Amino acid sequence: MRKRKKTYTCGLEAALAVIGGKWKFLILWTLSNQGSKRFGELRRAVVGISEKMLIQELKELELDGIVSRRDFKEVPPRVEYAITSFGAELAVATRPLCEWGTRHIKRIGGLPTQIAAE
Questions:
Q1: Count of other CB atoms within 10 angstroms of residue 80
Q2: What backbone phi and psi angles, to 5 degrees, belong to 35?
Q3: How far does CA 15 lie from the centroid of its chain?
């Protein structure tokens, strides 16, 4: 079976393919603002993410060249994750969206689609 490159219709579609979903965006944001982190530090910084999901998302971000993984080859294991230059460029592009969300955070929290049922 041959693999074909994905063709995107616009740049936004391509960018969302890399950071689609809630967790990748938050991992990217954390690493771009707080610097490199060990796995446990990253898990605590990205509130609400499960260990399984963090592992999966980090593997995908590493595969796509957004995040780098450095294994120190120590016992106990020590691994550190950092943003790459490719990922840093993406993080800069997401900054205006984060700023917009911050300006409107209270309004967004009260939107009908955002109110959780009790």
A1: 16
A2: 85, -175
A3: 12
pTM value surpassing 0.70: yes
In a domain, 113, yes or no: no
User: What is the total count of domains within the chain?
Assistant: 1
Q: How far, in Å, CA of 91 to CA of 60, rounded?
A: 16
Average of pLDDT values for 32-56?
95
Q: What CA–CA distance (Å, rounded) separates 118 from 11?
A: 39
Containing structural domain, residue 71: 11-98
Burial of 57 (0-12, 13-18, 19+ CB in 10 A): buried
Q: Is residue 43 part of a domain?
A: yes
Question: Is 41 within a domain?
Answer: yes
52 found inside a domain: yes
| Residue, of 55 and 77, whose pLDDT is higher | 55
- Beta strands of the chain (E only): which ranges? 37-38, 67-71, 79-83
* pLDDT (tens digit per residue) in 62-110: 999 999 999 999 888 889 999 999 999 999 999 998 899 999 999 988 8
